[in-house]
Amino acid sequence: MADTTKGAGSPPAGPKLAILAGGGTLPARIANAVRGQGREVFIVAFDGHTDPETVAGVPHVWSRFGAAGTILRRLHEEGVGEVVLAGPVKRPSFTELMPDWRTARFLARVGTRALGDDGLLRAVVREVEDDGFRVVGLHDLLKELLTVAGPVGRLAPDADAERDIARAVEVARALGALDVGQGAVVQQGIVLAVEAIEGTDAMLARCAALARPGTGGVLVKVKKPKQDRRIDLPTMGVTTVEKAAAAGLRGIAIEAGGSLLVDRTAVAEAADRLGLFVVGIEIPQ
Amino acid sequence: MADTTKGAGSPPAGPKLAILAGGGTLPARIANAVRGQGREVFIVAFDGHTDPETVAGVPHVWSRFGAAGTILRRLHEEGVGEVVLAGPVKRPSFTELMPDWRTARFLARVGTRALGDDGLLRAVVREVEDDGFRVVGLHDLLKELLTVAGPVGRLAPDADAERDIARAVEVARALGALDVGQGAVVQQGIVLAVEAIEGTDAMLARCAALARPGTGGVLVKVKKPKQDRRIDLPTMGVTTVEKAAAAGLRGIAIEAGGSLLVDRTAVAEAADRLGLFVVGIEIPQ
């Protein structure tokens, strides 16, 4: 990954990147990868959301969500050029959102009704761009994160699984068109669960009790039809495979070019070990 | 309710009615009401699904779901003219479905993939009609079951609640169009939960943990856009009000003319006692 054309004193490989870091290991992966490309990185970590290990050895600031004014001023001071949103964020509490004047002005404009769904993140992106920063997607920084078409491990879906996948795609896309969720679970033609704000893990957790005997179901995750790919692309990693297996599913299908696969090698290994298929599927847009 | 024009020896108020009885109190309510109209009733009770109190003092047979041939033969022997499906049925286990030859022929035709969703019930209705019975809806027998427009108790939705209702209607209708579910919960513009096979009670049970502080959410139940009103209309009663209150919701909206309200007086009393609105809403078809 490192750009070997860069030596000491070479121009940087790109403008300084600020990572607005949610939970999980994705922010640290991005930070490492981008620094490996010779770019400077600055992490904005959020109290109670970002894993403390994420910022180890990387320039950073800890902040509250409500401190938009302070954060944006700091990004200017740091000479940041590009900004990326990385990792999931649990819905912030009211205390975390306690707004500074900049945040208050922002909330007054977008309305607190938008808080918690994609509307909020889209508004955040606009706000950051209005301040002169360029907002990029994770897949712009690390192309290999983007899911490609085809099986990830040894197994592939059979004709029955393909039918369940098609049904789940239909349902998940319809929900996504309404900006509700990105996932659905279908078993033997029956929709066991659809995802709203609870998230994929919670949806999977209830599937074991809803499943019927016989062939297991499939989890499908697709991006919303009009989704900005810089925001909250469906993401899966080893944990998703493990939770799908625990729910009795036989496989997972995720949108090729429209979702992020964190650590493809580890996902393939987990899928093979647990006997699930994981497959990237093309979705006509 | 009793038809006072009928005396001993009068012609019956209608053909003998068979009630295919699911769980809850609805089958017994229907049986009492229809007998009060002077009609003969025969109940088909299903082992493990029908409340034993339902059949007390009413001609009946206990059966398995898989015994379609036996059931239909018995309905002919009893001189049944009309059939109604009443009360919810949990997904039958494989043992309960162990088919007689008639059921096997039926399953071979509709395909076991249809088991568990509306497709199965539609196929059951066709099968019963092909045998010469007329299948009617609960609202054909007991008109006051059908939800009418307007508040059921003292409270009515305010403008904020109306917005959440509109959003939930949009989501529930889209899911219904895909034959997935009939319900959604929205709070402050955010879709907290959408219903698939888990049912309304299970959906409500997860909402308390997903809700944000502040104004509570609303539950909306609507029929599927192309739903046969003789099958599985959305139904609510006192239990739904209680579970919605426990989930922190502020109200419930159900489709006027497209849902069943079991015991309107008791629902109004529960809604007033618990401080929720319950409202029948018109949905443009």
From TrEMBL, chains A, B:
Residues 16-145 form the LpxI N-terminal domain. The keyword Transport does not apply. Transmembrane segments: none annotated. Its EC number is 3.6.1.54. It holds the Pfam family LpxI_N. Residues 150-279 form the LpxI C-terminal domain. The keyword Cytoplasm does not apply. GO terms for molecular function: hydrolase activity. Keywords: Hydrolase. This is UDP-2,3-diacylglucosamine diphosphatase LpxI. It comes from Azospirillum oryzae.
